[in-house]
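Quick question: what would this complex look like in 3D?
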Amino acid sequence: MSSAPGHLMRPSASSSPCLRTPSQTAGPFVSLGTEWLTDAGMVSESDPSAIIVFGSVVDGDERPVTDAMLEFWQTGAAGASLAGSPQSCSGLARALCGPDGGYRVVTVKPAALPGPAGQLQAPHIDVSIFARGLLQRLVTRIYFSDEEANEADPVLVGLEGPDLRNRLVAQRSNADDLGSAKGAPRYHFDVHLQGDRETVFFGPW
Amino acid sequence: MTGAEAIPGSPSVLDPPYDYPGYNSTRLRAPKMGLRPMPPGSADKGGPVFGDGLVVAEDHDLTLGHTGEPVGQRIIVTGRLSDSAGRPVRRQLVEIWQANAAGRYRHDMDRHPAPLDPNFTGVGRCLTDDDGHYRFVTVQPGAYPWKNHYNAWRPAHIHFSVFGTSFVDRLITQMYFPGDPLLALDPIYQSIGDRRAAELLVAKFDMATTVESWALGYVFDIVVGGAGPTPADS
């Protein structure tokens, strides 16, 4: 900070530097303000490194959540650059739930990441969920069913039992690979906001 | 399993709870299992990088882009995006969306029988400058009724979505207007238990921002982040 020009360091007279601005719900019309960025993902579906993550968001009555917005934060694939075009954003993909609660996002499978104490974290995507009825975002993680590194991932290992662990693992959808076209690999990940299969959520931060 | 409660004094204690009975939509959507501690590494994940062409200058003015001017009180909303240490969040995305002056959103699911304005979409965005500042030109949104309880009205508000420098900074919130009597009656606003924190969501009327013979000015500063890393000032 020492060499920054003075005008860049000017404090704002009306800010309260240590008190964070609280969250509020994104409301039922979140798509109005956020849909424009859903097409600015990191890769196109025809990219060889592309994968598709799809699924549904359901509420405590197992009814589809039709007004949620999901964001997927991640690093790139091993060796792949996330640098996008001027019209894109890198490191983030955004999806909206449709009338059936379904979402679908095209992204790349991220590389494994170093974790604490030298442990390797299995490839994963951090997910934020915004919707009416959520006064703050919900945060979860997506792992991938075809990754052996899941067995030693510190977050998955820290959960009690395979049932909870599986709630964070997107299942490779084999049926869709049998099509004539060599499509991008597809992974199925549902979000249950409540209920017997409630998704594992993380926080606070 | 017990839910992970917010640690007193941590930034998150200022956020509203998931489960807030006064806001009916939380009933089937608030998680019941309790939250797990944030995984190591998530807090370190940097923010997305937005291409230079993603946002254009006109995107900050919601009164443009139509054949005529929208109905309503023209306003300027500006402020500074910073981290909890007061450092500017630079070149990051700020998105807003709002109802028109009559309290109606341009959205298929908005059934409020107030008129749509053919000259107003209610969506804007910009990138913060090197000092963390953003600026929008828009019209004062109207209050509108909702079905939460009998005679429920949302106070006039603008939805704000901001990115900071890391995953923990990500925030969607709402900006309100000073002196609005509906704030005291609004369960979404009242869900913030800490009065000082709630007041941070009320913009300040500002004569220095107000433009002679043209638009009223409001200042709404936004502070994001817990303990996430910040890029070195350069």
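Answer marked as accepted. Residues 1-11, 227-234 of chain B have pLDDT under 50 and may be disordered.
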